[in-house]
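Researcher: Sequence recovery benchmark, item below. Answer with residues only.
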């Protein structure tokens, strides 16, 4: 890590030793870190691009939480928000490795954040990076992590860096890839990296390190390797997952010809994780990711979960529908389409339901994921498979919670953009399309119970978009009408069961 620059200027406001800043609070780690910081007695300022994504988090209304909409590329604005904070967590990075400039963008953002932290007089920055042996063969993704470490230190504020290998927890991308491969492929043709050694760690252990370091001054300005108690190859991890799922050991056939790009495409087709995220993960797996020492465990002691314990815990959370955050949470959320700005095609349908509005809404809000789409499911699966083949997310992303919708949640190949509790919600399509598509679901009181409506809107891009709309329009009668009837039957059954 580079030597510290001259001391930061005098603070313009008193520093609170129990006030911290968290960037990336809408992401997988950040969304779990905030409530644990609150439980430890810290006041937390969340710096986010889209505050709506936090509205439904159970900790959002905590009196010690404040949410600030900030562009991290604007150092003066960031500095103003961080005034008086003792520490700042930097949990922002590009997991989508596409284009040639993502490394530069990550580095520039980190440098801007470092400058803002210096201006605000922040005591230290805490960063979660990636393990990996140094050298010319370090993957581009892990090289970018190293560059971010140095960029964060460039402002002269001490940086505590935690370097982790694969993080295993309910909803993590690594966990979902591992689970899908084991559950769906009894025989696998794999790249050679399945034999590479790694020291994976449970997400709860990562969170302990991130919180506990604030009360241990010896961690300030240190780079600490963190990992679980076992060093395992990816092949051995698959064996542990198979045992946890009660499956027979998987047959693994390593071959030398699968490049990281081919590996990521293979992961994309089999699992819910898109190739843009799978590629940096696959590239990282070619590097041995094992802790160089146990300094972190000595400074911040805790019980470290074995991989079987970590996988069992993650599977349990998933089975109980208690996935706190998911890899699908992170990333920008598109704004509302400007429907007045061009041609928009609309398909509106509705149906009477002999059930109270609250029951009808709860039934409709459970669409997708493991619950299916209540009508034309085979067509939904076909559309999802086609989307996967052309690089889209497909249906396998599912949903984080099988019963409740939160703005920003992924729902198969949709993203939740609006929720009015008990009344309506809107989904925006993230599948590959020649235009912008949304699906709105509304519930209103009616004489016999409630009225359920579906409204599909499509704003085409060029002639291809217009042709797409008219090609799928005949299928709407099958899909959406069937969906309405299926939701009607399900809501009426649920209402009858309550009587």
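Model:
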């Amino acid at each position: 890590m580079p030597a510290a620059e001259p001391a930061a200027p005098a603070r313009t406001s008193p520093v609170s030793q129990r006030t911290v800043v968290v960037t990336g609070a809408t992401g997988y780690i950040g969304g779990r870190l905030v409530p644990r910081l609150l439980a430890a007695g810290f006041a937390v300022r969340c710096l986010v691009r889209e505050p709506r994504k936090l509205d439904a988090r159970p900790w959002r209304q905590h009196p010690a939480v404040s949410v600030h909409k900030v562009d991290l590329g604007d150092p003066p604005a960031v500095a103003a928000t961080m005034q008086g904070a003792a520490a700042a967590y930097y949990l922002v990075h590009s997991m989508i490795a596409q284009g040639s400039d993502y490394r530069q963008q990550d580095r520039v953002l980190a440098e801007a954040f470092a400058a803002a932290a210096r201006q605000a007089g922040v005591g230290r920055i805490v960063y979660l990076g990636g393990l990996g042996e140094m050298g010319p063969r370090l993957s581009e993704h892990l090289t970018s992590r190293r560059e971010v470490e140095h960029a964060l230190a460039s402002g002269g504020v001490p940086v505590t860096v935690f370097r982790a290998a694969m993080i295993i927890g309910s909803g993590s991308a690594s966990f979902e890839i591992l689970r899908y491969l084991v559950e769906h492929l009894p025989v696998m043709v794999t790249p050679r990296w399945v034999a590479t050694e790694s020291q994976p760690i449970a997400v709860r252990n990562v969170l302990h390190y991130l919180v506990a370091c604030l009360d241990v001054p010896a961690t300030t300005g240190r780079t600490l390797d963190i990992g679980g108690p076992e060093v395992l190859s990816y092949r051995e991890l698959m064996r542990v997952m198979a045992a946890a799922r009660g499956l027979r050991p998987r047959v693994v056939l390593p071959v030398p010809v699968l490049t990281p790009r081919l590996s990521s495409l293979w992961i994309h087709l089999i699992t819910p994780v898109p190739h843009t995220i799978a590629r940096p993960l696959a590239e990282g797996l070619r590097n041995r990711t094992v802790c160089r020492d146990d300094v972190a465990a000595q400074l911040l002691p805790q019980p470290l979960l074995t991989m079987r314990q970590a996988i069992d815990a993650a599977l349990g959370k998933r089975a109980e529908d208690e996935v706190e955050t998911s890899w699908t949470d992170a990333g920008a959320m598109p704004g509302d389409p400007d429907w007045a700005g061009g041609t928009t095609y609309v398909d509106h349908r509705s149906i009477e339901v002999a059930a109270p509005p609250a029951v009808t809404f709860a039934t409709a809000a459970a669409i997708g994921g493991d619950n299916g789409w209540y009508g034309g499911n085979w067509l939904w699966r076909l559309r999802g498979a086609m989307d996967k083949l052309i690089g889209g997310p497909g249906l396998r992303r599912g949903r984080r919670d099988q019963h409740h919708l939160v703005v920003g949640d992924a729902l198969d190949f949709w993203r939740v953009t609006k929720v009015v509790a008990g009344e309506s919600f809107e989904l925006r399509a993230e599948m590959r399309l020649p235009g912008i598509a949304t699906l709105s679901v509304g519930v209103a009181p009616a004489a016999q119970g409630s009225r359920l409506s579906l409204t599909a809107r499509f704003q085409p891009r060029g002639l291809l978009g217009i042709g797409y709309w008219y090609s799928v329009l005949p299928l709407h009668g099958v899909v959406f009408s069937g969906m309405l009837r299926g939701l009607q039957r399900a809501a009426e059954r649920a209402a009858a069961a309550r009587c």
